[in-house]
Design brief:
The chain has 71 residues and is of the alpha+beta class. Helix content is 41%, strand content 17%. The protein starts with 15 loop residues before the first helix and ends with a helix.
Length: 71
């Protein structure tokens, strides 16, 4: 995952090797949420809040969450 550090924040994306194996989704998402996101409860529902200046990264994270059953 160190290749993520080589790009500027607006250009970051999920590494290909993580996208290729769903077994890496949960630990990657957990680490991302710990660093650049949070979970919150609102009106009896829980939400995952992610922050990034990279639109591509946010779309990839959203797809990973959806593939994991979180919408």
């Amino acid at each position: 995952a160190f290749e993520v550090c080589e790009k500027k924040s607006g250009e970051k994306e999920v590494p290909v090797w993580i996208l290729e194996d769903r077994g890496f989704y949960a630990p990657f998402l957990a680490g991302f949420i710990d660093g650049d996101g949070f979970l919150r409860g609102a009106g009896g529902k829980r939400e995952v809040v992610l922050t990034s200046t990279s639109e591509k990264l946010v779309r990839q994270l959203q797809a990973m969450l959806a593939d994991s059953g979180l919408h």
